[in-house]
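If you are new to this repository, start here. Below is one unmodified record pulled from the training split, so you can see the exact layout before writing a loader.
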Amino acid sequence: MSTVIATDLDGTVLFSERAMAAGATRPDPADLVPVDIDGDRTYAYMTTATAARWAELAAAGVVVPATTRSVPQYLRLRLPGRAPSLAIVCNGARLLVDGESDPVWERQVRRNMAAAAATFDAVWQQGVDWHGRRGFAAVRAVEDFFLYLTVETREAWLPDFAAEAGEWAGACGWRVSLQGRKLYLLPSSLDKAAAVAHVAERLAADRVVAGGDSLLDADMLRAADAAIRPAHGELHLTGFTVPHCRTTASAGAAAGDEIVRWYGEQTIDRPTSTASR
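And here is the target side for that same chain:
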């Protein structure tokens, strides 16, 4: 049986300083491996246990990152072991093949976006308006696929605004996702699940294992044969559950250890049941 692991990155297997605080204890600095470094700043880490298991999965050629990160944000990562030959970035808008964007997949994505949603420019203008009127620190585009607004600190008004923005976006064929200090706006047609299905077909895989922590991962987890989510993040806060998806016992970086260990049990190690119910 051929298995592919489609995994979200941030908040699932790698963690910022802020995200590590979701756990009961913060890992010792000696137990952290920097994996996202830009200039003199480190943005994210793996634990040493997660890094070692990730390297095993990468060597086996079974892991496919599935991230909302932009192409530059993904390519600057120093993931342990062999670089995955395939990576889903921009929330499924781009499929990287040995670091290069697949033009065939991009054309399909753009056709789907054009058929089902308001234009990026129209939503960008609304985002700029919200940035000016609602106290956001910045508004940024990920190419011309989607955008996000950020606040300096998580404000009490943000969840209510996210619900308001969600109603506006839904009427336009877009959706919102609130992740920490970032409020994403994406076309509803832009989803990791479709990209994962394409990758599984491309690799002739007959089983998909998936993991993620945000609402942007929900459809990917639903579509998988077996799935896992951490006991933190958007999915945890909203009580996300499907029969084949398990929840980690731990939160924060310890959940990342648990998730990558479970990935190994599904692929490299002796086969086990697909998931704890």
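Two things worth knowing about this chain: The first strand starts at residue 3 and ends at 7. The longest helix spans residues 103-116.
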